[in-house]
């Protein structure tokens, strides 16, 4: 199933039908597009979205980066709450957002490496296009 995982409908359908899923995405809230494929994403080296930090951070900027990451977890819990509840009812088991998105076979990332900070990627992450993909 080729889907955009933001609404989690395609991920729920893929899990329900036991089909492989391919995610086509620009970015995922809370950096789940790097945590789900188990890609290293150290808070002390990679700035969070809207932190306005560079990859050369001072100690206090690193602390700010970690606090932003904690606030994102709270935001994401509320943002995906209804979708997770619906997925739990459909799949008849307790699921989390990570359970739904970590089963993706391939992540088609619409990122432009020129505008992103250097970070490691996993073999199932494929970069396609850029800003105007």
UniProtKB/TrEMBL annotation:
Domain of life: Eukaryota
Location, primary (coarse class): membrane
SUPFAM superfamilies given in the database record: UDP-Glycosyltransferase/glycogen phosphorylase
Any one Gene Ontology molecular-function term assigned to this protein's record: UDP-glycosyltransferase activity
Keyword tags: Glycosyltransferase, Membrane, Transferase, Transmembrane, Transmembrane helix
Pfam families, sorted: UDPGT (PF00201)
Subcellular location: Membrane
InterPro entries named in the record: UDP-glycosyltransferase, UDP_glucos_trans
Membrane topology label: Single-pass membrane protein
Annotated Gene Ontology cellular component terms: membrane
Assigned protein family: Belongs to the UDP-glycosyltransferase family.
Annotated PANTHER family: EG:EG0003.4 PROTEIN-RELATED (PTHR48043), UDP GLUCURONOSYLTRANSFERASE FAMILY 1 MEMBER A1 (PTHR48043:SF161)
Listed name of the protein: UDP-glucuronosyltransferase 1-4
Organism of origin: Dryobates pubescens (Downy woodpecker)
């Amino acid at each position: 199933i080729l889907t955009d995982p933001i609404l989690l409908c395609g991920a729920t359908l893929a899990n329900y039908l036991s089909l492989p899923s391919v995610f086509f995405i620009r970015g995922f809230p809370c950096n789940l597009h790097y945590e789900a494929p188990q890609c290293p994403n150290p808070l002390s080296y990679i700035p969070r979205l809207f932190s306005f930090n560079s990859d050369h951070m001072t100690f206090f900027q690193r602390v700010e980066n970690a606090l932003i990451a904690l606030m994102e977890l709270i935001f994401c819990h509320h943002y995906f709450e209804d979708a997770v509840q619906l997925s739990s009812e459909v799949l008849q088991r307790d699921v989390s957002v990570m359970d739904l998105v970590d089963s993706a076979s391939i992540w088609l990332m619409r990122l432009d490496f020129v505008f992103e900070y250097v970070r490691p990627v996993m073999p199932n992450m494929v970069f396609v296009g850029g800003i105007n993909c």
